[in-house]
Amino acid sequence: MKSYLVDENGYYGEFGGAYIPEILYKCVEELKNTYLEVLQSESFKQEFELLLRDYVGRPSPLYLANRLSKKYGCKIYLKREDLNHTGAHKINNTVGQILIARRMGKKRIIAETGAGQHGVATATVCALMDMECVVYMGKTDIERQHINVEKMKMLGATVVPVTSGNMTLKDATNEAIRDWCCHPADTFYIIGSTVGPHPYPDMVARLQSIISEEIKKQLLEKEGRDYPDYLIACVGGGSNAAGTIYHYIDDERAKIVLAEAGGKGIETGMTAATIQLGKIGIIHGACTFVIQNEDGQIEEPYSISAGLDYPGIGPIHANLAAKHRATVVAINDDEAIESAYELTRLEGIIPALESAHALGALKKIMFKPEDVVVLTVSGRGDKDIETYLDNYKKETL
Length: 397
Ligand SMILES: *Cc1c(COP(=O)(O)O)cnc(C)c1O
Prior knowledge:
The chain has helices spanning 25-40, 42-56, 66-72, 90-103, 117-129, 139-144, 146-154, 169-182, 200-208, 210-223, 239-245, 274-277, 315-322, 333-347, 353-360, 385-390, and strands spanning 11-12, 15-16, 62-64, 75-80, 108-113, 132-138, 158-162, 187-189, 230-234, 255-263, 279-283, 286-290, 326-332, 372-377. By secondary structure, it is an alpha/beta fold.
């Protein structure tokens, strides 16, 4: 049977792989040769489960959103990753990776961050585990995301400003990779999404797969069947989406809808709609769709949501889109804002701007009344209140 999961060489169809400099070969090999054994060991499972329960606050609820359901004429459940410690799904991954790092005897943690959410999630688990933490962040992002920078510092991390390129996520990632090349023996690189060289996309997807593991149990309890008709999630690099679909990926009864950031519109050039506009290329060690110009240079993406403006996309999702297993919709800034206000007024839940893109996808699908929909609210909107207020339009309500 064909599977959409990773093959033994680290590929999803033609996407994925590990395109890395020679100097990193040994540490990526080391990770590749240990991660499955660690993830499957009893000691890891016990420690991970305990922390997910008592530290992160799992299981996250599967909430039947009655008023939202009525509006869209189907049954919509929200998977509430916004209720996790630190306010999003990212903590599932950082808790898992730091446990792997410790088992591999690493002493020092590095990470890249764009908006600062992954930086905060990494600094959080480093404080918890008493490990040194260095976070690379573009100077432009440092200026835009002051509060997250202060949180990381309060948690004890060193935040290194990156001044190359456009001084954003892509440049921060390059700098983190450079650091890793200089300290391959003692340093563990915690990547924040299902991107990077194999085994990262698979490792992150497995750590986030707790989301769909819980959905299965919760749906069975509430609906008497463990699969929905639709799964909907937003995609930046793809980790919350990967977690949401992981245990359904080869079960075609559950349709997959991925919402990427359309920005100001996919034809405007100011967009992060990587799957729709990207061409095959290599970014940060993986072969996937990349937004690039005629000369193959990576183009700076744009989205109102800082968590979605990555110029690449996880190889898992590139393959699901190429094989038509997933439907990909681009949600523009204004549509996301409108959907965020809608959820807030209908359900009393202020979603993260990223999650608002997933909500925007509801308007692009024709549902049947008996359809059961699970939509992942990847994070809470506290960090986005200013953007919401700046973009508030009376006529959207
Ligand atoms: C970082 C972030 C995302 C995007 O990352 P994925 O890896 O695509 O999940 C989405 N939602 C929130 C709340 C985030 O913080």
